[in-house]
TrEMBL record:
Protein name: Type-5 uracil-DNA glycosylase
InterPro entries linked to this entry: UDG_Type-4/5 (IPR051536), UdgB-like (IPR044147), Uracil-DNA_glycosylase-like (IPR005122), Uracil-DNA_glycosylase-like_sf (IPR036895)
Superkingdom of source: Bacteria
Organism listed in the record: Streptomyces griseicoloratus
Taxonomic placement: Bacteria, Bacillati, Actinomycetota, Actinomycetes, Kitasatosporales
Domain Uracil-DNA glycosylase-like: 48-220
Amino acid sequence: MDTSGLPGLDQRIAGCRACPRLVAWREEVAATKRAAFADWTYWGRPVPGFGPPDARLLIVGLAPAAHGGNRTGRMFTGDRSGDVLYQALYDVGLASQPTAVCADDGLELYGVRVTAPVHCAPPANKPTPEERDTCRPWLVQELKLLRPTLRAVVVLGAFGWQAALPAFAAAGWRLPRPRPAFAHGTRVRLDGLDLFGCFHVSQRNTFTGRLTPAMLREVLGEAARTAGLPAENGGTAPQQGR
Ligand code: SF4
């Protein structure tokens, strides 16, 4: 068992029980299940980041979904938000397949890692500020381990932005003052790292058209090219099956 580097960090995250409310919720959801997934054995634990340890691009979300990542054990896997995200990553050439249904479905990410500032599914998708702060050291450690190769980050949504900026500071990047506000399409240059803001791939945003597949591909494509990854033209890629 590899206990060093990112694999070791992922293992330690998966065993964390620091937030009593979230531990109780993730385990209750795993025990009661949703009827459609009654034959699943839910993961029911913190969900570590997903993607290679030498990623050049990092995507930072919010927290796992109760019946998505909390069920499958992999970030953005098994829920509608993940369908949108992985389809877009596939469209710009950063994922091996457009779907993510379970942890052993064969999905590979190319130079990209996906993580979250809160690793346990929260009730109503809303972690408390205390839970966000308690989980931050995991993100700080992940950023430090990725730092040698990391060149760009896409942060999904205002919560992730507010949670992630202090983690970047704690991991050694100097942030502008005042701290830049979140906006879709915003881009902030740190030393050796570009941060991109993007609306979250939540159902509320994608169903209402606030975030379209083209908007998502555009941000991912630009961030990937900034990171030196061979992304295809994100802004004009055809919509596949949507
Ligand atoms: S949210 Fe983070 S700090 Fe809290 S129990 Fe889960 S992994 Fe641990």
